Amino acid sequence: MVFSSLQFLLRFMPAFFILYYIVPKNRIAWKNAVLLMGSLVFYAFGEPVYVFLMIGSIVVNYFLAWITECAGNRALRRGLFILTIALNLSLLVLFKYAGLSLPLPIGISFYTFQIISYVTDVYNGRITRQKNILTLGVYITMFPQLIAGPIVEFSEVERRLSNRRVTPVMLDHGLKFFILGLSAKVILANHIGILWNEIYMIGYESISTPLAYTGALAYTFQLYFDFLGYSLMAIGLGKMLGFTLPVNFRNPYVAKSATEFWQRWHITLGRFFRKYVYIPLGGNRHGMLRTLLNLLVVWALTGLWHGSTLNFLLWGLFYFVFLAIERLFLKKWLDRGRVLPHIYMWILLLFSWVIFAITDFNDLWLYLKAMNPAGFFGITRNDCEILQFYLKDFGILFVLCFACSLPCVSCAFRRLMRKKWSFIVFLPLLLYCLYSLAQGLNNPFMYFRF
Amino acid sequence: MKKFLKNNILLLLIAVILLLCAIYGIKLYRMGYTLPDEGVHKPVELALFELSEGLLPWNAAATDAGAFKDNAPTGSAKDNTPTGAPLASGTADLPDPAATDSAGSHDTDPAADPSSKPLPGTEPGPEESKTPAEATNEPLPPSPTWAPVDDAYFDKACFIGDSRIVGLHNYSSMKDHADFYARTGMMAFNMMTGMMEEYKKPLPLDITVNDYFSPDEALQNIQYERIYIMVGINELGSNDLVRYKTCYSDAIERIKELQPDAIIILQAVMHVTDKRDKEMEEKGKRYTNENINRFNEVAMELVDNERVFWLDVNPILDDENGKLNPDLTNDGQHLKASEYGRWVDFLYENGLVWTE
């Protein structure tokens, strides 16, 4: 089930929250039980079989973390820890990369990472083991973040797992965050995604160079608002449950360098790789060469995490190259500039998302050829395509998307949320989303199978 | 409690609106409306769907209650819904007896006349049409045949249809000659009345509908000699063959009325790829080749070979299994821009001309 479906909005969400709020506020264990059951039901709608895989994974990891913590011998602890990590990773590899004809369990990339972060933190003594298996289950399966992040660390929600309450103000803010996220997904991402789909339909051998760039721009916005929307909805749902989930995006498209971009884009994923891969490898403490090597590993893994096809590896390496160059000398200049760094970053963005989007190498090559700035290779079958159709149909949407990528707009929304009268804005947004969904606009959730 | 009320105006308003939707949805369901894809009872979804299609509560109460009153005890509404989404225009509404009649006849005896020509794309068999006693309509010259034609033929033609026709317009040279009244998502249900704006280039000046116009308006103003139609793929979701046929037939009658000298060429709905078939089956959706063929068979029943003819481009686009060739498409249901030439060539080779 995705958040932006009528099934979730009209059935699951009302039913679940009524049940959740009926439970008295001092019965936190009951609330956790309702949340756990709700999350499993939520997951089972999309994956009736793999829900058992997830439950099994939680049980096994619960006991492994227990034994690891109890083991007195250091070597034994280490061995158990490695075993745990290997087990979790092998599941991920098995389903995602082994080329089996099995469908990928939804959200496995996200919940596996949460489990890994949990067992690693237990092993390192950063947190103490969660003794109640149901509570651990709530942390891992909690439906707001279950299938598309943010990747929450146990320490961030530990206190709230045993003690939380939802004030009327939190409920209101949560709802507003949710509506904001839903709008980003339904109004912006879904609509601008039509343009990208249309280009796919046309075939990359038949698009002009300007259309190739327009399409790349459309995809750039689609991906962002899709994912941002999902993260905002997760934060909103979290608030309505009494949790504070970490922020995942901080206006990434205003970044002036790839380094800054990755501090603003999918923050919880970057944090995961930094904390559990880059720093354990030695980070930047062993000279430039070793640092670059560590970066290479991190970015190859980041690329592969997003998908099993080679274009994702290429995409990761693409970022590695630019991050390395920036680290070596470019960053200093970029930080000083005002306009040029943004142009640099946008070119990077367009090309990187095209590599990300097109999984077939022949198609990718065709598209990159069409993006050749000299415009020789983009051969269109329709001379007036851009002006006649795309700018006319999507022009306003592009402007909206651009505006909503700016920090001042996010800021304005956050300020608006606190106003009593702001329902005048949020209610129509919600109704428009429902209208749009009811019209049956197709709804491909892009970060679903990652 | 007071604090709750003060801080959660938004939530309360949403609750009230959803409640109203639920009530309206239940009312619609009682009147025989169902969701296009399923017959299950989902009041809020149903209300939202109908609202998004332009059916407002006060209109529903005034106009449609009468039309559906006798029609739908909830049981019969479930299996094969003849009601579906009423259109803003209201032309699509369906007389009850006709619905049951042709529903019965469709499955049992398709022997009427189109069954004798399984692939009528290239040989429509004009002699067939002469045998019945309907040869009263004599103003047409003796025998229509399919033959190669030139640009002049299409100068007096127009194309009406859904996204496939939009593609034909956008990515082929056909637009230099023929006029297009096409819109993504066009269905027989709303073919004549749906508004569009993109294809207005040749309209004479006396049409002053601020940028938007319907095929109906266009055909009132320009006379054509031949009118090509392809609709049907979007109706598959409703699975409502009866309604498809009735609406298609109504639209054809309307065109005949508006264009007394034109012939109407129905193009078979283009197939989808095998992969698409499987995806759809997996999702439990109805957009499959099997259903396309069923809809095509029904549309063929509208052919009289006097003013309404049948043209099937599928044979030149299909693979050996009778499904759209995957090399010609990326998304499995629309041709790639570079492949529209095949279709255009086919149309040029198969023009309908009158020979002695």
Radius of gyration of chain A using CA atoms only: 23 Å
Strand content of chain A: under 5%
- The amount of helix of chain B comes to 40-55%
Instruction: Please summarize the sheet with the most strands of chain A.
Output: none
Instruction: Write the H/E string of chain B, N to C.
Output: HHHHHHHEHEHEHEHEHHEHHE
Low-confidence stretches of chain A: 441-450
Q: Could you list the spans of chain B in which at least 5 consecutive residues all have pLDDT below 50?
A: 62-136, 200-210
Apparent shape of chain B: elongated
> What is Rg of chain B?
22 Å
Quaternary arrangement of the chains shown? Answer: heterodimer
Mean pLDDT of chain B: 72
Silhouette of chain A = globular
Question: What is the CA–CA distance across the termini of chain A?
Answer: 15 Å
Most extensive chain interface and residues per partner: A-B, 35 and 35 residues
Q: Whole-Å distance between the termini of chain B?
A: 88 Å
Helix % of chain A is over 70%
**Counted beta strands of chain A:** 0
Descriptive overview:
The complex is a heterodimer of chains A (450) and B (356). Chain A is an all-alpha fold. Chain A has helices at residues 6-22, 28-46, 50-70, 74-96, 108-124, 133-141, 143-146, 154-162, 168-202, 209-241, 258-264, 267-278, 287-306, 310-336, 340-357, 361-370, 385-404, 407-417, 423-438. Chain A is built from 19 helices and no strands. In chain A, helix 2 crosses helix 6 and helix 9 packs antiparallel against helix 17. The longest helix of chain A is centred in the middle third of the chain and has 35 residues, at 168-202. Chain A is globular, with a radius of gyration of 23 Å. Chain B has 356 residues and is α/β, with parallel strands linked by helices. Helices cover 42% and strands 9% of the residues of chain B. Chain B contains 15 helices and seven strands. In chain B, the strands form two sheets. A five-stranded parallel beta sheet of chain B has the order 3-2-4-5-6, sandwiched between helices. In chain B, strands 1-7 form a two-stranded antiparallel sheet. Residues 62-136 and 200-210 of chain B have low confidence and may be disordered. The A-B interface holds A 6, 10, 14, 168-169, 171-172, 175-176, 197, 200-203, 205-207, 381-382, 385, 388-389, 420, 422-423, 426-427, 430-431, 434-435, 437-440 and B 3-4, 6-11, 13-14, 17-18, 36, 42, 44-45, 48-49, 51-53, 167, 170-172, 198, 329-331, 334, 336-340.
